[in-house]
Amino acid sequence: TCANSVCSAMARHAGPRLPLIVKNLIPTLNSVFDSQRVTTNAFFAELLNSNVVNDLILLETMMDNMTGRQKDACMLVRMLALRGLGNIASGSPEKVRKHGAKLLASMVNGMDDKDDPHNLVALEAMSSLSKLLDHLEERDIQSMLLHIAIRIRPFFDSEQPDLRRSSIVLFGNLTKFSQSNCEVFFEQILNGLVTLLLHLQDPKPEVVKACKFALRMCGPNMGCEGLCDMFLNHLREDRSLHYGEFMNNVCKHLMQSYPEMLNRLILTNLFYFKSNWVDIRAAAPMFIGFLVLHVDEDQCQQVDLDQLISGEW
After folding, report:
1. Does a structural domain hold residue 146?
2. What are the CA-CA distances from residue 111 to residues 38, 135, 154, 196 (Å)?
3. Domain CATH for 1
4. Are 226 and 102 members of one domain?
5. By CB neighbour count within 10 A (0-12 exposed, 13-18 middle, 19+ buried), where does 17 fall?
6. 233 in helix, strand or coil?
7. Which Pfam families does the UniProt entry name for this protein (predicted)?
């Protein structure tokens, strides 16, 4: 907040002096003191939120220096560097396309950070990538689309609500780029579908909101008009959801369009019988019940009843 206030004031009133200030601060990015590297990165990250860096021809210099901090020993420095790179979407959106490949690589590297025990760097990478996506070239994102979708999937069930929310929002945003690779990405949608539907019962409202968004975004890619319409009409942010009735109708459409998916959907739900969240634990058997209710008798043969009754997976 302090860095934000200082940067806002400097962007408004100290524009002509900023190039010299930035030049004098750059050496501290390599300081032996973590506190100096953190402070400078926080300042640069907020400065990149303003178009003034573009006007003063500072963007490339600052971007290169922030990119260079991705291997910093201090986790907070790495996190702030990603925040700064993501802020380019606000400060200089017209420049994102030009530097898309480099920015995307930085975000993917952040998600794959190996020294990030609490996933704070990954969280920043996911949040920043969501901001950048609207300004990236499709060709840049296409090559990394599958890797990102697979990488963020485990975060859907994270104990940290921010990680659940950010990963699910990012997944929803990724669907914009799935048209030219629809078969491959459709598989990722199917892999995440049960989780997104169950987390509509998440204890955190911000995660529920993220699931509604992601499902609305997934709908057009699922090849089922009825399901798409349900997601668009019933999962609006301003509309309350009658979960049981909604899931009954969702399962009806799923079994009409993808009856061969029954066993796969059941197996995924069985995993949530042991969920830490009571409402999700309750939703999973209801989900299975509605699936079995709406499937044809012939398709029911694929269900392993012993496994289902025991609740084992």
Report:
1. no
2. 20, 20, 12, 21
3. 1.25.10.10
4. no
5. exposed
6. helix
7. HEAT_MROH2B_C
Specify the DSSP class assigned to residue 28. G
Classify residue 148: in a domain, yes or no: no
C-alpha span between 60 and 155 (Å, rounded): 32
> What does the buried/exposed string (b/e) look like for 190-201 if buried means 16 or more CB atoms within 10 Å of the residue's CB?
bebbbbbbbbbb
Q: What is the pTM of this model?
A: 0.89
| CB neighbourhood size of 25 (10 A) | 18
Note down pLDDT in tens along the chain; length 313 residues: 555 566 666 666 566 778 888 899 899 999 999 999 998 898 888 888 888 877 778 888 889 999 999 999 999 999 999 999 999 999 899 999 999 999 999 999 999 998 999 999 999 999 999 999 989 988 888 888 889 999 999 999 999 999 999 999 999 999 988 775 567 788 899 999 999 999 999 999 999 999 999 999 999 988 889 999 999 999 998 888 999 999 999 999 999 999 989 989 999 999 999 999 999 999 999 999 999 999 887 766 666 666 666 655 5
Q: Is the dihedral of CA 50, 209, 156, 176 positive or negative?
A: negative
Q: Residue 221 corresponds to which amino acid?
A: N
Domain co-membership, 12 together with 112: yes
Give me the phi and psi of 111, to 5 degrees please.
Answer: -65, -30
Query: CA-to-CA distance for 91 and 70, rounded, in angstroms?
Result: 21
Nearest to 211, CA basis, from 222, 203, 220, 202: 202
200's CB contacts (< 8 A; 6+ apart) are 208, 211, 212, 215, 235, 241, 243, 246, 283
The residue segments making up the domain with residue 37 are: 1-136
Cα–Cα distances (Å) from 58 to 126, 143, 259, 273, in that order, read 25, 29, 56, 53
